[in-house]
């Protein structure tokens, strides 16, 4: 019955494998943070194609996200990752690169 193992389980197992090139600290890289943001966008806007997103261009210029979608991203960051983004800082999340610049220290400070 090994083959019937559901896919998420396999994925999860693979991601838990220790990666020898990573230091033991739980520090997140900017690329990981970008992927988290992309994953959240995929959840709240499943119709959007996130495969070709450019780091430097505002997300709302590349996709059909409205301010409610944007709030959903902020809420998911809080719900899934415990990251608080005050309203004054929303402009920091404009593009993937600015998300990474702003959120990476927050993830690593947890």
Explain this structure.
By secondary structure, this protein is mainly α. It has five helices and no strands. It has helices spanning 7-16, 30-44, 59-62, 67-81, 96-109. Helix 2 (30-44) crosses helix 5. The longest helix is centred in the middle third of the chain and has 15 residues, at 30-44. The radius of gyration is 16 Å and the shape is globular.
Q: N- to C-terminal separation?
A: 39 Å
Mean pLDDT, all residues: 84
Using DSSP, what is the number of strands?
A: 0
Shape: globular
Largest sheet: none
Low-confidence segments, given as residue ranges, are none
Structural class category: mainly alpha
Percent range of helical residues: 40-55%
Tell me the strand percentage band: under 5%
Query: Taking Cα atoms only, what radius of gyration do you get, to the nearest Å?
Result: 16 Å
Number of helices: 5
SSE pattern, N- to C-terminal = HHHHH
How are the SSEs ordered, and which strands pair?
Elements: H1 7-16, H2 30-44, H3 59-62, H4 67-81, H5 96-109
Helix pairs in contact: 2-4, 2-5
Describe the structure in brief.
With 110 residues, the protein is mostly helical. It has helices spanning 7-16, 30-44, 59-62, 67-81, 96-109.
For the structure shown, list the relevant keywords.
globular; single chain; mainly alpha
């Amino acid at each position: 019955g090994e083959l019937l193992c559901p896919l998420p389980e396999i994925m999860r197992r693979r991601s838990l494998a220790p990666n020898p090139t990573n230091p033991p600290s739980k520090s997140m890289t900017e690329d990981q943070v970008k992927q988290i943001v992309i994953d959240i966008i995929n959840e709240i806007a499943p119709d959007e194609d996130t495969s070709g997103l450019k780091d430097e261009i505002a997300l709302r210029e590349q996709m059909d996200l409205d301010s409610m979608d944007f709030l959903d991203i902020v809420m998911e960051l809080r719900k899934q990752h415990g990251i608080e983004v005050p309203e004054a800082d929303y402009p920091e999340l404009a593009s993937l690169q600015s998300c990474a610049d702003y959120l990476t220290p927050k993830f690593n400070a947890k």
